[in-house]
Design goal:
Chain lengths: 267, 269
């Protein structure tokens, strides 16, 4: 079961972050400068993050879907990458529907679901889904090296870019190593084991996993250093000429972010 | 001309205290083809990392291109191809991996693109450039990793078992590319336990013993035809040498040399 779970998680991670086919398609975001895509997406994310009004959040929710459709990315691809995250956040925040004070809507097992609580849960989940969807559309349409190049061009601190690059790379390694370890273990395990033995094995496995992940991380780090990885990340900048559509996209996204801020703090 | 790499009295111990390298001296001249041969556990991969500036020696020192001791300053001239391609290919697509080294080392983009196109063609990677490395077969990964190492345009290439995952045609393709690279003056150093590979990739051999020390140096013929010396290190001469050893005074080292020899011999009954 553990092996299956690790395989599933690795597959989900890879399918989330690797989009070699959609990034090569001819679409709206693929045609944008990576810098414009990054800035526009970041501005929209800011808009989503600062929004608290359910109507504003509901108005922002279709934006990633529209961007996906305009970029030849199927909604199913977006949904596959985002619904599990939204569902997980829903599970985490669901108790708030009962804990928030306010007008009672309905009683479930003796606990009252309040209107404000329900509104909070729906808004929160929708915000998470919209934010993750924007990231998913960015990842599906823009190669990671282009994102890094755009970050460097924006003069984002090198340390921050390092963290992003390393997190991105080690995320795959982490789960790939776990899958290898579990597969090797299950390939040599026969017969039923008691709960106590399972727990003991799990403890041993965790220790081995930690050591192997560290060792693998060191080896990959050597692989990076062997090709100049000791220097700050500096992928080729693919930024071409800025077109009017790039400017319009970024300006619209910034306007959305500013509007969201105005609605939250000034109105 | 100054050696491209000169290691003096290099020793290295693993974290558990086991000696990995014991007083190794290595001098590599420009354009040389050298094989570092040794059984499993003799410290070949460790020596590769130390010579490649990816692990500092515990004692002794390594100099590059006539006196430079900081490997990071010569990283654009020194390529290290690690044994496991999975440790080497860490980008989203093969193309990004091939671009990674040149971009990090400030190679102009047009130059890098020309190199990548040439390497992709020579190593049959054309259809794989936009695929993620983890979806490649073991042989494809090996070829992609070699292309990634060569894309930096190095003067010295240190290769750890470069053909271990390759089938026959893939092996010949890689060896052909290495021949071309050597013909252009690049120093090639191949670390391998396989005596059959050595005559194809080297003119000179450094034989490592089980204790991580150099037990013999010499020409490929001198080392590979000395069955006793090889046996002491748990190695055997190449198959062609074993086949012809009792038949001719100078046994051929490669299959093609063996075929040439047989072509000159009347085998008709």
């Amino acid at each position: 079961m553990l092996c299956h779970a690790a395989t599933t998680i690795t597959g989900v991670l890879r399918s989330f972050f690797v989009a070699e086919q959609t990034a090569a398609r001819d679409g709206f975001l693929q045609s944008r400068q990576p810098l414009a895509t990054l800035l526009g997406t970041a501005a929209l994310l800011v808009g989503v993050v600062v929004s608290r009004d359910p109507l504003v959040v509901a108005a922002l929710a279709p934006v990633p879907l529209a961007l996906a459709l305009a970029s030849s990315v199927s909604l199913r691809q977006v949904a596959a990458r985002t619904v599990p995250v939204a569902f997980a956040s829903l599970v985490v925040v669901a108790p708030q529907a009962f804990l928030f004070p306010g007008r009672s809507l309905v009683e479930v097992a003796g606990f009252a679901v309040t209107a404000d609580g329900l509104s909070y849960v729906v808004t929160f989940t929708l915000r998470v889904w919209t934010g993750v969807s924007l990231l998913a559309v960015l990842v599906l349409t823009t190669p990671f090296a282009d994102v890094v190049a755009a970050l460097r061009r924006l003069r984002v601190p090198v340390a921050l870019v390092w963290v992003l690059v390393l997190t991105y790379r080690y995320l795959f390694l982490f789960f790939s190593e776990l899958r290898r370890l579990l597969r090797a273990r299950e390939g040599r395990t026969v017969g039923a084991r008691g709960l106590r033995q399972r727990w003991r094995e799990l403890g041993q496995l965790s220790g081995t996993f930690l050591i192997r992940t560290l060792e693998r991380g060191e080896r990959v780090h050597r692989g990076m250093r062997a090709r100049g990885g000791a220097r700050p990340p500096s992928p080729y900048d693919r930024t071409g000429e800025t077109g009017p559509t790039d400017v319009l996209f970024v300006a619209s996204a910034v306007a959305v972010a500013i509007s969201a801020g105005v609605i939250r703090w000034l109105l | 001309m100054a050696p491209v790499i000169a290691a003096r009295d290099v020793s290295y111990a693993y974290p558990d205290g086991t000696l990995g390298l014991d007083g190794v001296d290595v001098t590599l001249d420009p354009g040389e083809r050298v094989a570092v041969l040794g059984p499993n556990g003799s410290g070949k991969s460790t020596l590769q990392l130390v010579l490649g500036g990816l692990e500092p020696p515990d004692s002794g020192h390594v100099e590059y291109f006539g006196g430079e001791r900081d490997p990071e300053r010569v990283r654009d001239r020194l390529a290290v191809l690690l044994q496991d391609p999975d440790d080497y290919l860490f980008n989203s697509t093969v193309r990004e991996d091939l671009e990674y080294g040149p971009a990090q080392l400030d190679v102009p983009r047009e130059t890098a693109q020309q190199r990548i196109d040439r390497l992709a063609d020579a190593l049959h990677l054309d259809g794989l450039l936009d695929r993620p490395p983890f979806r490649l077969s073991a042989g494809e990964k090996e070829r992609a990793a070699l292309a990634a190492a060569l894309a930096t345009g190095p003067d010295v290439l240190l290769l750890d078992e470069p053909t271990s995952n390759l089938d026959g045609p893939g092996r010949e393709r890689v060896l052909g590319v290495l021949d071309d690279v050597a013909a252009q003056g690049t120093t090639l150093v191949t670390f391998t336990p396989g005596t059959d590979l050595v005559p194809r990739v080297a003119d000179r051999v450094l034989l490592l013993g089980a204790g991580g020390s150099v037990v013999a140096r010499g020409s490929v013929r001198e080392i590979l035809t000395d069955a006793e010396l090889l046996a002491e290190q748990g190695l055997r001469p190449p198959a062609t040498v074993r086949l012809f050893d009792d038949l001719v005074a100078d046994p051929p080292l490669t299959v093609s040399d063996g075929r040439t020899l047989l072509g000159d011999t009347d085998l008709t009954r």
